[in-house]
Amino acid sequence: MAFPSYPSLPPPPSPTPPPPASSPPAPDPPAAPPPSEPSAEAPHDAAEPYDEEAMFAIHVEHLALQQRARHEDELDEDARYRLHLLTRRARADDEPSPPAGAWFRVVAVDHAKGKRAEGQYFHFFAREAEAQLGRAVVDGMVAELRNLTSGEEGAVKLWRRSGGGAEGDAHGRWQPERRESRWRRGDRLQIVGEAREAAAARRVSLEEALSEEVAREVLSLLRPADAMAAAAVCVSWRRVLRDEAVWETLCRREAAARRRRGEGEGLEEWGEAGEPEGAWRRRAARAAADDAAVAARWRRGEAACVEDALRVHKDSVLAMQLHEGQLLSASADHTLAATPLAGLRAEASAAAARQARGFAPRRAAAFHGHAAAVLHLHADAGRVASCSSDGSVLLWSLDGGALLRRWPLRAYCVHLAAARLYCGGEGAEPLRAYDAASGAAVAAYADPTPPLGVTSSLQRSSELLAAGNTFSASQLRAWDLRTAALTHRFHLPGASKGARCVLLLADSILVGCANGSIVRCDLRSGRFAACLAHAECVNSLHLHHDQHTLISAADDCLVKLTDLRTLGTFSAHKLKRVVYSAVSDSERLYAGCDDGVIHCFDFSIQAKRTLERRDLHAAGGFTAAQQRALNEALQASRARQDSRFM
Description:
- By secondary structure, this protein is of the alpha+beta class.
- The protein is built from 14 helices and 35 strands.
């Protein structure tokens, strides 16, 4: 018998049960009920028997459960489940039945709670499920199943045994096992796992959507270590990387990029075309191993590097930047310098052979144009902007050192980005943006709230512009780059004594303070936390190329390397002079000091070979292993001589 679907109705004011069967039928009501409410005397199919008492009881129970569902805190678990079954059964009766053979039936249940008919496990005949599944049912298999009777759907775990001698030759339950299962004898079950697997097989993955030519081009742009990682996680990428031509393109691009940055080995050391099969792949593996070894030497500190002194300036090195394979530096001797990084290792080794205390790079170029100390510089796209205490901002070309523009602007720090030049000043408008071609003012980033102070450092990202000031009651401010609206203001503790440098990260800003502390300001929560990193003023903050190592330099003559993930310092370089600026690439660390000398700590493969040669020379021509063997032999000989006189 098909139950009618009952809409959500308010409970009747006084439901009266129907009269007994012996009583005469009740007279017709004087007026028909409204169209929105079904009539109690609605006609039914005469061919199908209709139990009015049973249907009325179901109707009353259904309405009562719906009313109680509005108060979930008072509705117990059993009532919720009964309401769920009533709703599902009403919907299932309105839906067409699945075709024969598309479902199998629960023949028995067990692990029932109390006197209820629901059980934790359902039993069935394996042949019926296998006819729908298309394969044999085995112990422990998991399949997607829908209970057509209750409407529930999910993963079930099946076993190919009767389970306790109940009816049927297989049983199962919901998966995971902590999910409560309620099965009734006669439930109709349908396996839907096969349909989902077929749909998943029809989905096109990213690596399948990319053509082989596009995948080849994308993989050839990776670094050697990243390409090997891609081959380890994807079969289709591994198939593309079996081609030796891809590895050759990758190695040539990597060698050219390292040459531009002044890092690593050149193409002449990577080999040429016409090599035996697998040669380029082996070179890429060697490059990846070298990169890992260099990263390990960074964490070992001074014991794993070669320290060289570059005598570039005659006075304090106030700012530095690495740009297009050159080390740019600004000094209090009124000059800028551009030092090519390629070939520095050979010059340093030649100076060490002469036992010279530092060397002046032969290809370093000086930029003369300021009449006072150069306070700051910043380069972009082959140009460099510099500001000086003489009240001028200059724009230079790195190709030949030509002076392009001169503007009479009072600035303490600059940032050059494409067609914009950002200058840090003082007062209520600490930051201004100018057109890099004409020098016309474009925008002003204002904050009239005291303390005002002098802008000591400036950092720009794709969305924000951050600046710190030198006032003793220091504050850090950040503006929206496009609208020039002030978005963040952090009032640092009075003990900070002013913000000397800032470093803008993805979700926070690091501030180096005059008291030696480094403050991390969270842009999401607006909170900040300070940790004491140095004993004196922090002059420079720089993020290493691995994106989680912070390099800080301070007046205490220390350059520290700190892991931002743990806030633990794992290496430090002690110098004899105050360090005003520090920058790094993947192989070298540069520290500019107050005597005009730039100290270079080299962790590269060439530096490792230099260390091995120095150790060999210091040991009188013996390797470290030979030196240990010689010492052990000498100790054994002395022990034998001592035993003769005893």
